[in-house]
Amino acid sequence: MDDHATPRVLVIGSGIAGILTGIELRARGLTDFTILEKADTLGGTWRDNVYPGVACDVPAHLYSFSFAPNVHPTTRFASGPQLWDYFREIAERYRVTEHIRYGTEVADARWDGSRWTVTTTTGESLVADVVVSAVGRLQQPSLPDIPGISDFRGRVFHSARWDPAADVDGARLGIVGTGSSATQMTVATAPRVAHLDLFQRTAQWIFPMDNTPIPWWRRTLMRLVPGYARRYRAGIKRWVDEIGRAATGDPRAADERRQACVDALNTVRDPDLRAKLTPDYEVGCKRLVISGEFYDAVQRDNVEVVTAGIQRVEADGVRTTDGELHELDTLVLATGFHADAYLRPMTVTGEDGITLDDIWADVPMNYKSVALPHMPNFFLINGPFSPGGSASVLSIIEIHVGYVMQLIDRVVADRVALEPDPDRSAELLAAIREQASKTVWGTGGCSSWYLDRNGVPLVNPILLDDLAADMAHPEPTDFHAVPR
C-alpha cells in the first residue's frame, strides 16, 4: 500500500456482483476503486441475454438486493429487460456508475510482492492493492463444433449473442439445446414462427410454475406499506429453500419435486412425444428448468422435437443422423456456457510465480469460493464450488460480497495482504467435494455443468442460511497476513 491506509481496489466486471461490490466499498468510504467492464455498458447476464422470452427463473421479488427490494415486477418472474433496468437503476442510485470504466477487458493480473499490476487487452497497466473478480460464471458461450456451420445461408448465433437483425415472425426457426434459455425461447417463439425445430440431445426435467401476474393490490402494498416487500420476499425464500433441500438430500422435498415434474410431463398427450421428453436421470441432477408453458408449446402443430443427432449444417438447414434435412431460416445455438472458465482466458500470477492454472490444474482450489491460495488480496465473488442448485445466485453474491468486505476491512485496518492457508483451503474443499458427491448432482446419472471432468460436482451442497452462518465472519487463523 501507499503511505495512506486506503487501498486502491480494482473490480473486474460490472454485473450484479460488481455493482454490489461497488456499493459496499462506497458504504465503507473506500472510494478509490474502479470497476473494469469490457463492454460499453454495465449489466452482465441481463445485458448480454436479449433473446425472445428471456427471464429469470427465480421469483422476481427474491431476485433483488435485500436492501433494495424490487417492487416493480408485474409477474412472478421478471423479464430480462426489467432486471437490467433494476440493476442499472440501483447502480446509479448508489453512485456506482461513477466508478465504471467501460471498454476495458483484463488480460493479465500479476502480483509483484506488494501490489497487483493489471494489464488490459490494449496493453495498458493499472496498479491496485486489492483485486476483486466479479466476472460471473455464465459469460463465455459454449459453441458446438458442428461440421458445415459456416455454410449455412441463414442467420446462426448463440442465444447469449442474439442477432438484433433476426426476425423470427413467420420464419423457420431451429433451436439447438433444451436448457433454460432454449425453453424460454421455445415458449416465446412457437406462436410466432412458421415452424420450429427443437434439436434435443438430452431431455430436461421441467418444474411447472406459471409466470402469473402479481395483483395490483400486492404491488401497491409493496410500494406503500413499510416492510411488506421484505415480508413477501421472506415467504418466497422459504419456497426456494425447499428447492435447495430437495437438491441437497431431503427425501420429502426431493419426492415432492420429482412428483411435480412427473405430473407436468404427463400433460403431454402424445405418448411418443412424451417418451422423447422423458429424461433418463434423476430430477435435479441437471439444473432444473422452470416453466409452466413449455409442454404446451412443444405440443403445437408447428413445433417438432428432434431427437436424432445433428450430423452437419448445410446451406439450407440442419441434416440429422436419420438423413432428414430440416430447412431453416435462423439457427440459434442455446448450448450453454463454459461455466468452469471463471476468470479465464485472463491469466493470473501470484506469489513466487504461481499461476491460476497451477492452482487449478487438478481442481479449482479455493477458500470458500472467495479467495485463492498464493494470491494475496485477490478475491472472488461466486467462485468455484459456490452453491449451485440450492439457492438464488443473487443471495449467494450478497453473502460473498459481505465476507470479502470484511477481509478488505482487515486489509485496511492492519495494512496487510491476506491469502488463505493452502492446507486449510484443501481441507475445506475436500469436505465439500465429499458431501457433494453424495447428492443428486453426483449420483443422479447425468452429465451437467455442475460436474468437473472427473464427474465430481463443482458445487457446495449447503443451504443458504447455513452458508450465511458459515460466512458471517472470517476466521483469522485461516489466513496468512503479510504486512504491506
Distance between the termini: 6 Å
Question: How many domains is the backbone divided into?
Answer: 2
Which parts are unreliable, with pLDDT below 50 for 5 consecutive residues or more? Answer: none
Average predicted confidence as pLDDT: 94
Overall body shape: globular
CATH topology term of the largest domain = FAD/NAD(P)-binding domain
Named CATH architecture of the largest domain: 3-Layer(bba) Sandwich
Number of strands: 21
Helix content: 25-40%
SSE arrangement:
Elements: E1 9-12, H1 16-27, E2 33-36, H2 45-48, H3 80-93, E3 100-101, E4 106-111, E5 116-120, E6 125-128, E7 130-133, E8 155-158, E9 172-176, H4 180-189, E10 195-199, E11 206-207, H5 216-224, H6 228-248, H7 251-265, H8 271-276, E12 289-290, H9 294-298, E13 303-306, E14 310-314, E15 317-320, E16 325-327, E17 330-333, E18 347-349, H10 356-359, E19 378-380, H11 393-414, E20 416-420, H12 422-437, H13 440-443, H14 464-470, E21 479-483
Helix pairs in contact: 1-11, 6-7
Q: Quick recap of the structure?
A:
With 484 residues, the protein is of the alpha/beta class.
Verbal overview:
It is a single chain. With 484 residues, the protein is an alpha/beta fold. The protein folds into 2 domains: 9-140 and 338-483, FAD/NAD(P)-binding domain (3-Layer(bba) Sandwich); 149-232 and 258-333, 3-Layer(bba) Sandwich (FAD/NAD(P)-binding domain). Helix content is 31%, strand content 17%. The chain has 14 helices and 21 strands. The chain has helices at residues 16-27, 45-48, 80-93, 180-189, 216-224, 228-248, 251-265, 271-276, 294-298, 356-359, 393-414, 422-437, 440-443, 464-470; strands at 9-12, 33-36, 100-101, 106-111, 116-120, 125-128, 130-133, 155-158, 172-176, 195-199, 206-207, 289-290, 303-306, 310-314, 317-320, 325-327, 330-333, 347-349, 378-380, 416-420, 479-483. Strands 3-2-1-7-19 form a 5-stranded parallel sheet, with helices on one face. Helix 1 (16-27) runs parallel beside helix 11 and helix 6 (228-248) packs across helix 7. The longest helix has 22 residues, at 393-414. The protein starts with 8 loop residues before the first strand and ends with a strand. The mean pLDDT is 94.
